[in-house]
Amino acid sequence: MLVAGNWKMFKGPEEADAFCRSLREAELPADVDVVVCPPYVSLPSAVQVLAGTEVGVFAQNCHWDAEGAFTGEISAPMLLELGVYGTIVGHSERRQLFGDTDETVARRACAALDAGLHVIACVGETEAERDAGETEAVLRRQVSVLEHDDNLVVAYEPVWAIGTGRTATPEMAQEAHEIVKSVLDVPLLYGGSVKPDNARELLAQPAVDGALVGGASLDLSSFEAICRAGSLS
Ligand code: PGA
User: pLDDT digits over 142-170, tens only?
Assistant: First the structure.
């Protein structure tokens, strides 16, 4: 079971430092792998404060080249130099707002894994795609560009459930996860408005191996509650 907190563009270095200090003192369940994904500028604080703990620090994105003329991008070797453990790639906000495609997501995932980072690769259909009955085709397309790797985890995040307070039902999550797993057999997180009050039911689904949490990961008590919900489920 893995619970990852995607902070998005929240918590600068000072706030990250304070949050991670509290997280270090929190009683996290031993059977849940806990990860935080701060913005780039807060990675050094998080890595430093969480050093020697079981909490992993991931970036939110990673370029496929080691270096080059790519203004605004960050590479896997740079993240490794900081002591970062892994990275998210292909989050729907990167796909929708910043031009990531299945191809660039695959390149990012592949380069990060080759460099030695762990990867959470995100997939998920939009509301229009679900309404048009295209969920399965979209998931198959998005997942088929990824290659199996022991350090790869996929996150199913229906776009209509992200930051909206609308969550997939546990049955919908299970169904989508079965589709993803039929293409690529890797651990699979559910993401999209995971909160303390719905986490247990979602995480209890047999094909759900964890959660990628956005908004509710910014508050320590709700993040802890979601980690606890993952325990023994
Ligand atoms: P949310 O975000 O939990 O705020 O819906 C999830 C995500 O985007 O990873």
Answer: 999 999 999 999 999 999 999 898 999 99
Residue 223 has a pLDDT of: 98
| Cα–Cα distance measured from residue 154 to residue 108, given in angstroms and rounded to the nearest whole number | 14
Ligand 1 mutation target, pool 7, 35, 100, 157, most atoms within 8 A of CB: 157
Residue showing tokens 């247990």: 200
d(CA 227, CA 91): 21
Start-to-end CA distance of the chain, whole Å, equals 8
Residue 152 forms beta bridges with which residues? 119
How far apart (Å, rounded) are the C-alpha atoms in residues 109 and 41? 21
Q: In this predicted model, what pLDDT tens digit does every residue of 78-100 receive, in sequence order?
A: 999 999 999 999 999 999 999 99
For residue 34, give the H/E element and its range.
strand 33-37
Write phi, then psi, for 53 (nearest 5 degrees). -105, 175
Considering the entire predicted model, what is its pTM?
0.97
Q: Is the CB of 6 under 6 A from ligand 1?
A: yes
Residue 61 DSSP class:
-
Task: Tell me the C-alpha distance between 23 and 167, whole Å.
Answer: 26
How many alpha carbons lie under 13 Å from residue 126 in its C-beta half-sphere?
Answer: 7
φ, ψ of residue 107 in degrees (nearest 5): -65, -40
Kindly give the distance from the C-alpha atom of residue 68 to the centroid of ligand 1, in angstroms, as a whole number. Answer: 31
